[in-house]
Every structure is written in structure tokens, then in C-alpha cells.
Amino acid sequence: MAARDPEIEEFLRRFGWAQARRTALAGDASARRYDRLHRPGATAVLMIAPPGEEMHRFQRIDHWLLAQGFSAPRILGFDAEAGLMLLEDFGDDQLARLLRQDPKTEAAHYAAITEFLLDLHRLPPPDFVPSLDDQGLGGLVALTRDWYPLRDETAAERLAPLVTQLCGDLAPLPPVLSLRDFHAENVIILPGRVGSARLGLLDFQDAVATHPVYDLVSALQDARRDVSPAVVAAEKARYAAARDLDPHAIDHAFALIGAQRGLRILGIFARLCLCMGKPGYVDLIPRVWTQMQHNLAHDALVPLREGVTQALLPPDAALLERMRQQCGQHPMR
């Protein structure tokens, strides 16, 4: 990043943060980087990203969320061509960290997550976000075929169209806005705010209009932490009751979207290790696999369960170690 220092310094000068002290914040699975800026009486967050359309998507969704009364970070400065954005600092009360400190609060926090999703889903999605339909949901599974270790390549080729077909069997529901990467590391608790505004939202630039359970699955089947089965069951029931939906239809959709997301995440985490040199993601694969197998146990998903068994190798210790040894050695494709 040293080559970008002059443009970063100019950007900070332009928006009044030239003298700020910078400390690095934890990054994510993307090419983005975050610094916290400190000056007397104030802090902000500097997002450093590849220039391009992603910055504009973040800006548009950020403005929409704020206009609806949700807590997206206010944008204090923006230069899309430089890939730089200055954001409101939500602080350090990340939901994942709070749950590690006090696991007994899990039920209350996830109830708040579900209430936020219910508030969000009462609104029609903005017309500028792309649609993630049955075909798109199936297409995302191709990442698994491309990167995750396979038992049978031909069987792996059949997974994407099979997911598309099974999505078509779900009870039809109007699409809602999905933030997509909605989990405990992307939520900051803001104690000074009320209702759904207590949830500070991060990492929503890939938002889409899709099936209503997508973000419920994302939150309750977190690749980075285990949510208790009792909480998962309670929040699925809460969501179905609040929207007067058939609980069995929600269970079916939750299992299928959960399996679809699990397949895609296996591919993403394998790529992050093999292509991008991030071996830590291998450690998360067993949890994702276990969640996926739980979803595949649903009676309506027998064809997908059989397809996954034929296509993919289970992540035993030997397979995970081979992935670590190959970390960063595969070119992007």
C-alpha cells in the first residue's frame, strides 16, 4: 500500500483529517483495508479499496439504508477513482466480540437481528440493486466446482443446475433486500440508538434483491461462530410468525438456501487459501461443511444431498492440511 500513501495523504487533507493518527483495523475476505483515524475529540474510519464500481454500490446502498432509518455509516468523504472512503466510526462493539465476552446474551442479540430483518423486509428493495433469482443462486455454486477439492468433477458440474431447479420448487415469496454478508462480524451494536437502528451495518456493497430467508440464514449459520440450535429454531419461528408464513415452507427455504450458501462459501474459502494466500480460512471449512450437512438432511433436499456426496470430498484433517500446503500456489481463474 506504500505506493498509495501520497493519494491517501491528499485525500485526508482534503477532508480535514491530514493530522490524524492512523491505526489498522481488522480486514475482511476482500481486497479492502481499513484504518481508524484519531484526532482530538473525534475518530473516523478510512476504507482503502480497489478503485471502481464497488465504491459506488456501497455509496448508493448506504444512502438508501440511512434514508430508511437504519444505521449504515455516514460517508464523510469519498473518492471513487482513488478507491478511498471516509466513514463514520461505529466503535468496537462488534456483535461477534460481544458474544464471545458474554455468550448468555446470544438469544437477545439474535432476536434483535431478526427484528431488524423484519423491518428491512417490510420495505420493497431499491430498484438499483441486482436480482439474485433461482438461476443466480445456482450459478454461485460454480465456485465450489472451481476451487473446492472434488471427488467427481462430472457430479460437481451438476450441482449448480440442481440448486437452480430446487430453488424453483420453493413456495414463491416476493424478493427483499439482502445485505448478503450479514453476520456477527459485520454488525456493530450502537447502545445509544433504539430499535433496529441499534445495529450498525457494515459490508453491504454486494446487496441484492432475493429470497427473504437469505440473510436470516447468513446470520444464523455463521461461518465464523456457532449459533445455538435453540436460538436458530426460535428465530426461524419468530420470522415466520411475524410475516404469517408457513413454518414448514420457511424450514424448506432455510435448508435449501443454507445448502446453497454453504456450497458457495466452501468455494470462496478454498479460493482465499489456494489463490490468495489466506490459510486461516481453511480452519473455517469444517464448520461450513457441518452446517451444510445439517441443511442437506431436509427431506426435500435428497437429490442435492446425494449430489454433494458424489461430488465433494469431506474436509478431513488430511484434506485440510493439503490445502494449507498449497496455500497461495494457484493462479486466479
From TrEMBL:
Stored InterPro entries: Aminoglycoside_PTrfase, Kinase-like_dom_sf
- Domain Aminoglycoside phosphotransferase: from-to ranges: 23-244
Please indicate which superkingdom the organism of origin belongs to.
Bacteria
Instruction: List the coiled-coil residues.
Output: none
What is the recorded name of this protein?
Aminoglycoside phosphotransferase domain-containing protein
